[in-house]
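Budget justification aside, the reviewers requested a transparent look at the raw inputs and outputs of the sequence design task funded under Objective 1. We therefore reproduce one unedited record. The lines immediately below are the structure tokens for a 505-residue chain.
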């Protein structure tokens, strides 16, 4: 069913009003002190609260034990219990929207692209709440990180990020590479050759299952020539920036040769059986199950969860990383976070939710949520480092509720070159501000076009990027379905960007 713009915003306004009346009728919790801590006498003045939290993916190993320890600590401070709902990655976007639109009683929700939900009035502004209850939230994040992730001057979701860029890595089955007599992979061309050899010699193994269109599309095209500074415009299919020139381009009127060559190569990989036939639905979790020789991850190195899951799924299997990034690169940064934690407007526990986030951003508590129980799941390996205990590992999920650059540690068991890459990406001296730094697009003037573009992207753009459709045919079909919407969204992004850049002069 299609809704007119006026009717859509009337629905949003009534939804927010109803949520506000509900919150008023239920009362609130007794607030903590100005420092964000509960009253000095303990938690007797705080009513017991269970916070309902939505997370992506599956619970990590030993989650119940770590959660129990967290609740034990919280009982003596915030009087909080946790109802953590894990949603499979394949369903999290849809179920998040259903939960928000139906006013489910969530208190905290992970979101990797919150702007549209902010524009729809579904997330609570957090500036005053953080000022009153969240000093540690601010203390462990730079001003650039906090300011660059505001929308119209307000912070609606806590940015969860540790890097000045989003790391990106190919993860390879090391045991298969060695079995086939292939030397360590040092270039993208060598990686492609390895995939074809896997198809020939290991017919029971899918050569390549990338983690969706984000990794195999513009991200890949940009990394093949970092100087081009190619980047997708938010999650809007068909729009991109390049050259740090402050201009927004679309792939119909201004197809960049790098993008086109990437689409052509992906289609060849798909035709040749290198890319999984179900690449549109499969994700990098298949690698951890032992079903792929190569996948892609937002990490430098092989993260602990993937290592442990692979070794459990395939005894004797091993993984290694190959990345197109290098510490000698001179790159720019927008300081935009890749993950956020937000408080829905319908939450009845807004103060306690922010107070809890503040608790998570204290060193001992962050270590617990990120690495598990010290001495059982991990050991301190020096400043900014930790060492997981292999016999009882805990692959935490800090990216979904607490990630910050001050408290986060690097896995000391990673190879030295991977540790160096992780240190490089966290050092601001290696990066310069991108022209888009601080700019946040407000999609509300083109809300209908954005929604229609999103639908067309799923139907036409995703198969094009994943190599399922022939590039020229795929582009023609996508253009027929989405050109007008692409142009309208492009014009609005450019209009707002021009105004932002003019305000900086």
């Amino acid at each position: 069913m299609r809704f007119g713009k006026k009717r859509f915003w009337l629905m949003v306004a009534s939804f927010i009003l109803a949520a506000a009346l509900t919150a008023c009728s239920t009362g609130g919790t007794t607030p903590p002190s100005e420092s964000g801590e509960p009253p000095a006498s303990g938690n007797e003045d705080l009513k017991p609260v269970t916070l309902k939290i939505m997370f992506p993916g599956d619970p990590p190993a030993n989650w119940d034990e770590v959660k129990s320890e967290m609740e034990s600590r919280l009982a003596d401070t915030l009087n909080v219990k946790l109802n953590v709902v894990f949603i499979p990655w394949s369903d999290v976007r849809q179920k998040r929207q259903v939960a928000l639109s139906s006013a489910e009683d969530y208190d905290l929700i992970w979101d990797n692209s919150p702007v549209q939900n902010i524009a729809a009035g579904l997330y609570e502004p957090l500036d005053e709440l953080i000022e009153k209850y969240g000093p540690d939230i601010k203390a462990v994040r730079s001003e650039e990180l906090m300011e660059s992730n505001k929308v119209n001057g307000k912070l609606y979701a806590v940015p969860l990020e540790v890097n000045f860029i989003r790391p990106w890595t190919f993860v390879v089955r090391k045991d298969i590479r060695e079995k086939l007599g292939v030397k360590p992979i040092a270039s993208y061309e060598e990686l492609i050759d390895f995939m074809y050899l896997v198809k020939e010699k290991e017919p029971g193994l899918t050569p390549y299952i990338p983690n969706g269109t984000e990794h195999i599309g513009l991200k890949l095209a940009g990394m093949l020539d970092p100087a081009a500074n190619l980047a997708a415009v938010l999650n809007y299919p068909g729009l991109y920036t390049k050259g740090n020139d402050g201009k927004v381009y679309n792939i119909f009127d201004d197809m960049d040769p790098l993008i086109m060559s990437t689409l052509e190569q992906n289609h060849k990989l798909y035709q040749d059986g290198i890319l999984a036939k179900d690449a549109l639905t499969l994700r990098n979790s298949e690698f951890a199950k032992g079903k792929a020789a190569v996948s892609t991850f937002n990490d430098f190195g092989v993260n602990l969860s993937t290592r442990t899951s692979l070794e459990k799924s395939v005894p004797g299997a091993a993984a290694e990383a190959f990345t197109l990034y290098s510490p000698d690169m001179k790159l720019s940064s927008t300081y935009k976070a890749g993950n956020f934690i937000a408080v829905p407007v319908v939450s009845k526990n807004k103060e306690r939710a922010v107070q809890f986030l503040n608790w998570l951003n204290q060193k001992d508590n962050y270590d617990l949520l990120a690495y598990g129980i010290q001495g059982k799941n991990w050991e301190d390996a020096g400043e900014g480092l930790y060492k997981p205990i292999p016999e009882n590992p805990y692959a935490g999920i800090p990216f979904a509720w607490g990630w910050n650059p001050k408290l986060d540690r690097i896995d000391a068991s990673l190879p030295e070159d991977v540790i160096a890459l992780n240190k490089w990406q966290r050092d601001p001296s290696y990066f310069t501000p991108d022209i888009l730094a601080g700019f946040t697009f407000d999609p509300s003037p083109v809300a209908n076009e954005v929604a229609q573009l999103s639908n067309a992207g799923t139907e036409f753009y995703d198969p094009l990027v994943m190599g399922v459709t022939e590039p020229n045919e795929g582009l023609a079909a996508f253009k027929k379905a989405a050109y007008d919407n692409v142009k309208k969204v492009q014009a609005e992004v450019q209009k707002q960007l021009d105004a932002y850049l003019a305000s900086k002069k």
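The longest strand covers residues 49-56. The two ends are 44 Å apart (CA to CA). Computational costs for records of this kind are itemized in the attached budget.
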